[in-house]
Amino acid sequence: MPMFLIERNFAEQLQFDKEIVDHIVEVNTDMGVNWLFSFLSADKKKTYCLYEAPNAESIRENASRLGLPADVVVEVTDVNAAMFA
After folding, report:
1. Within a domain: 64
2. Whole-prediction pTM
3. Smallest Cα–Cα separation from 27: which of 70, 64, 72?
4. pLDDT tens by residue, 65-74
């Protein structure tokens, strides 16, 4: 399945609790997208998230349903350090 890197910019610092995370997982499952990994900036106002999804539009629709920004969505491929050895 294709992978996408999503840059999200938030006006306020992020605060997640179990209820919010459970809702995100539920919507992701319904939309057929799979969260893999996220990085949170030091000021907690920006994230970079790696997802598997059928296409970029499903990422944008998923974010819209969750009320989350998806400021930049870029399809990426796997890079392995062994490729550079």
Report:
1. yes
2. 0.83
3. 64
4. 999 999 999 9
